[in-house]
Structures
1.
Amino acid sequence: MHEGEMRRQPAYMQPPYANRATRGTPNYTPSRLNQMVALADRRGWQILIHAIGDAGIRMALDAYDSAAAANPAPSRGRRHRIEHIEAVSAEDIPRFGRMGVIASMQPMHASPNQNVLEVWSGNIGPERASRAWAWKSIKNAGGRLAFGTDWPVVGLDPRPGIHSALTRQTAAGHPAVGFVPAQRLPLATVIETYTAGSAYAEFEDAKKGMLRPGMLADIVIWDADIFALPVDKVKHAVVTTTIFDGRVVYER
């Protein structure tokens, strides 16, 4: 694909897709991506790369690794990110923690609807599908997570994504055993990843993402103690009050 061309291409895979003789098409060659990332890194910019296939994710990690070897670290440090990370190779999971690359993921994408269970999983094959949205594996290997909704592709309401991260099920509770259930996260980790994790990912962790004196008072109050609820009931909690920068902007 030529630079600047905005055509959607299949995810770039290492072995070919399970059901077709193609690996997909990356936007850039590895050498071109390395060149671009090195230039931006040298200027102290934070870099975000969209990568969903295992080969694309590896290309992004390789580019960050190459830039770190070529350039001195900026004064504020590096917080480069990879967005989405749908099907990561097992070998690359520990690289996030080792390199300090943030895994910016959107749990609602992993909601196991018919498209994910049949089309997505069928396209990449069962071995790669076993590492679908492997956020727990990345965290356990020392990686830092940041969760979001991917609005406007997905709605702004975080509750469906929270449900997906907790249960690896649809809102209706399917499949009963969960989709790759080993990747479920506890509620405290999910909330921390949506809040403090996302603040860290944008260099805003000194002023938001936690309830502490001196930080921005961006607070949502729900009608239930979600930590006292069964994990499959958290999605039913209702917002009663929203406080933005210390001001009440919504009351139910």
Note: Residues 1-8 have pLDDT under 50 and may be disordered.
2.
Amino acid sequence: ATYLVPDYTYGHTTHDSMVEFTAKEGWKEVGQQVHPLGAKDYSSYLINIANSGADTLVVIDYGLDAVNSIKQAKQFGILDKMKLVIPYMAPFLGEELGADIMQGVYGCMGFWWTLQDKYPIAKDFVSAFEAKYKQKPHDSAYIAYLNMAMWADAVERAGTFYAPEVIKAYEKGVKRQGPVGEVSWRGSDHQGIVNFPIVRGKKPSEMKSKDDFFDIVTVINGADAIAPE
């Protein structure tokens, strides 16, 4: 695999984690291209990627950087020769790039709306969000909802809004049923423990609606994936 890495903490730490864990599965890194955050022209990096001999391109970019770099990788013909993997995939990439580019692309997300087919609470959340906002919720809406619900639960258990006592309630690690299974907080370092999906982009012919960009490959147990204390 070859990596396109934005030059800031998220880019470097994600790259290092990907290399560490994929090596255990037999992946070999054949290079990385580090670029400034917010770059507009990726041609010099993509030329090196095209000549790397890799069969997989891992794009660690997020947001607009991901949109721009992947569009240019498509224009360079790289995506016709390499598989594309996006370690943390923003849901709006389907909308911004389209199924022609995103079909078959793997990545993990914080949330994808078709989780409603498996989890009743997710279905309630998606239905309520869509009724109010006339669109499917992305992971940002899901995370905001989940954080508010967990905060309200901690306040109720603490019996006060006083922040130090609410923190103690969080730190007890009480498990609650969220939209995608159990959620809790680890008391020692305040790390949230939440399940998340691995997704794969659908072919245009497989889409059942204009919002149906991704299949859910599996749901990862957050407790299994979380970094050790």
Note: The longest strand covers residues 214-220.
3.
Amino acid sequence: MGSLIKSDSNFSVVVTSISSPNLALKKIAEGSLVRKCSFYVIGDRNSPLNFQLDGCRYVSLSEQKKLSLKLAQVAPENHYSRKNIGYLLAIKNGAQVIVETDDDNIPLKRFWSKRSQSQNVSQIDHGSWLNAYAFFIDRNIWPRGYPLEYLRNGSPSKRSGFLTKVNSPIQQGLANNNPDVDAVFRMTQKLPFTFNKASSIALGARTWCPFNSQNTTWFKDAFPLLYLPSYCSFRLTDIWRSFVAQRIAWTCGWNILFHDPTVYQERNEHNLLKDFKDEIDGYINNAQICKTLNKLELRDGTEYIFTNLRTCYEEMVKHGWISDIHELSLLDSWIEDITSLGL
């Protein structure tokens, strides 16, 4: 990924958390201080009242409501999608690269390496569902959000011998130890494990694989696609965002890139049956959602990114996958905010 960042005020890390400062947050804050990067921790209703951590900008719920951001006034509370406020703050303060992660992911040294939007990598043009994890480990594992009905189809795990220069403003990093897998995997397979060190891959157009918000790099070109929907389960919000983002990325000539781990996870406590319940809408609908998005007649070019974004979410609401039409007014607030910030 390149040399370590010495100092980069254009590089921002965004997390949402209801935790007191823990090991992951402290390590990110330490790294941000050393490298003079911005680190935003977005609070919510159940966040500690006196959160203090050198090296991060903590934004409480009450402080969020005082911001001159329309979305901050109307976004639902007690939901992972409050992370949207962190993205907007990073953009407002001049971020050119946003790396998002969670409060149980501890950065490895490579987390702080410089990132490049344009890379020479193996491009996979599968034209269907592709299990990207298969390229980084020799065992049966799949990312959260991958349709269960396609697990037995088999994904090619061999990279092309040819490298292609790709434009990838969205890059999914993996996580070691306790990676982002679904509740079905957690209840039936063994953890923890470590991914193999391997070169990055880029997915071609119409090649689907969910990506999450656990360790993801966003370059400025793709900032409009950061939007997390609110009227769905928190176990699905980043997955469904990834489907919308992939569909629109193809209209811009962009690839989605996957690279080996730059964090390891010490997972927060979860109730796996509750996770399973919160993921059921995904198990049932993920494949159909992407089939529907595939059929949409979107316009090519980055100048249509906001139009395409609204078209995709209108379709999600129309089919009832997004459970409330108010999602569209939240999206409009996001678009209004992000355009007012120069995008």
Note: The chain has a mean pLDDT of 93.
4.
Amino acid sequence: MSARRAVFLDRDGVINALVADPHSGRPESPLKVADVALLSGVGEAMRRLAAAGFLLVGVSNQPAAAKGTVTQAELIAVQERVIALLEAQGVRFDTFRICWHHPDGSDPALRATCDCRKPAPQMLLDAAQALNIDLANSWMVGDSHSDVLAGSNAGTLTVLIEHPASEHRRGLASAATLVAADLPAAVSMLLEYGEC
């Protein structure tokens, strides 16, 4: 079977809206189910990717349980809500990988310097092996430099989404293949990439 193309998608700030962190006040991942809301146009954008033959692979760092901010069960409930909202719009991931670790976590079970936390590429590499993905012809789409680096480290093309609320996650000059304002714009750009 020939290898398939995929789009690896970060979750928070790409698919769903960021919310104010209860401690720092900065826009971060939602920690409560009630705070989960999809960003405008993401359902249609992801349907366009699937229609173009791309596998949809979610890859997300979720360290709040490791840090002791919330429980892992609460984070799983948030993830399930994101999935349910997307499914209501006709979107299904082919797989979704989550890194629960943090090197400075307060929970000993989740405190780790791991290979899966972006910018490390292991979530992408594992999904690629499981689903026979051609990484060189696939994309990583995210709103932080760790997303772009994870894609680069895995050998994919990359799109940096310059979501205004996640600007604090982008401290360095981007080496992304493309830069877009949001996921719908990113999808339009990557579908046209190489066709000029």
Note: Residues 72-88 form the longest helix (17 residues).
